[in-house]
Amino acid sequence: MRFGARVSAGPGRRTAQAALKLAVAGALLGLGLGGCDRIRDLRGLSTEDARAIGKEAYIAGYPIVTYYAAMHAQNIDANSPTYKGPIGAILSEAVLPAPGMPGVNRPNGDVIISTLQADLRAEPVVLCFPDVASERYFSIQITDMNMYNVGSVDNRKSSGAAGCVMLMGPTFLGLVPTGVKQLLRSSTGFARVIYRTQVFSPEDLDVAARMQSGFTVQPLSIFRPTSTAPAPAPAITWQRVSANAQGSDFAKTLNFLLPMAPIADPEAAARFGRIGIGPARKKSFDELPAETREAILAGFADGKAAIEARAKSLEKRVNGWRVDSVTGDQSSFKGDILQRAAAASLTPFGPSAIDAIFLPVDTDSRGAPLDGAAKRYTITFPSGLQPPVNAFWSLSMYDARTGGLVANALNRYRVDTLAAQNMVQGPDGSTTIYLGAVSPGPGLEANWLPAPNGPFSLVLRMYMPKAKAPSILPAGKGSWSPPAVMAATAPVVTAVAPEATDAPQ
């Protein structure tokens, strides 16, 4: 887009005032609360009404409170054990997981991570990324406070070339500078940016880290120095996240956050105001009669139970693998606030399925728990039917009890697309991966993913899954399915050495 082009909230020749109204309305649909017309009587507040409104408010506000809990721990509370750094800075970690590393369940050894907590209240920020070799995967995922995936940048969109995108808040309607290739709009005043940079091997870590250091962020007024910097956004006295933030303190926590992620629906805002939530409230939650507060807290509990039930119903199993991807952009939820809350509970800040999908499994083909002390296992991909991706796939091994890596003689904790190129194939062209605490034999160790001497689990990660058949998409209904983990007592495939190749090791 050329310099001087103006961001518009709608097509055609709408006035700036009309466009602004549309932008605000569209951006604030984050709490679109369809299906709640049943509570219309605003003259009195029965305990039944209070409970029903409490349930609705809990479901609508759950993603926002969940977002803030992570934001506070990582970017606000410097005493938090998970604190990474301040708001507004790109915070990079060039570390690969290792056995005994605490704090992360089923850590990802495929990529190194950078994060940014962007403040969009005063003006947009411009995110730039460096030239990347086309064979190295990278992605930039943006999630707002409503837990909507606002958009993403990756190898598909950039073709490995350097570029910049502009991330805007819900009401921005200014000029767009030359050099910005993509515009992304958050529905809230803050948004989390997650950068993923592929690492081919431990020896490649330094190279990946240099590429990682090429990510930059600038406020629009600095990226375009000819523009006038806006007034700073008001300072925020950050509220501590209590242990009851999603319980008895939910109303207090949500009230603090709603100025950053406001309710768009005026009828919903009026309903929530009746129980002391939102700008339309006549009284604070604590000023309501005791029986009303008890009814509201019961409604919060109802909301929590509804989220848990929906989350459980969303889990899909295919050949023992959990194949579900429930995160996405605003349109993917179609106004279903319960679906949005369930997604936030299952995979907060997870990528959209078209960008990446992660499939865990902890049972074999018969439903028995995986155990490296008791059995050996195999996973066989038929010829031409390895995980269908446009980037790469990986299969990682974890201790089922701790979620961590377990040391093994090969220092091998995953196999992936590159490793599969050097695996021994069966006579029919299939590729079998051997899982167990004991080697499958000298001729098959290239195909071996060592397992702990006890319970274990696996995660199959697919980056940029193919959209056309064979495809895992839509998740759980695609034409390609991950093969079951088969229990075996000994290798059963006759090995055939692969042809010589120049593929990376």
Description:
A hairpin with a 4-residue loop joins strand 5 (138-144) and strand 6. The protein has a five-stranded antiparallel β-sheet with strand order 2-3-10-5-6. It has a four-stranded mixed β-sheet with strand order 9-7-4-11. Helix 8 (290-314) packs across helix 10. The model is unreliable at 9-43 and 491-505 (pLDDT under 50). The chain contains eleven helices and 21 strands. The protein has helices at 16-27, 47-75, 155-158, 205-212, 220-223, 250-257, 266-273, 290-314, 330-333, 337-346, 417-420; strands at residues 5-6, 91-93, 111-119, 125-129, 138-144, 149-154, 163-168, 175-176, 180-185, 190-198, 216-219, 317-318, 321-322, 356-361, 376-381, 389-399, 414-416, 431-436, 448-450, 456-465, 486-488. The protein is globular. The chain has 505 residues and is α+β, with helices and mostly antiparallel strands. It has three domains: 28-70 and 238-321, no CATH class; 80-223, Immunoglobulin-like (Sandwich); 353-488, Sandwich (Jelly Rolls), CATH 2.60.120.
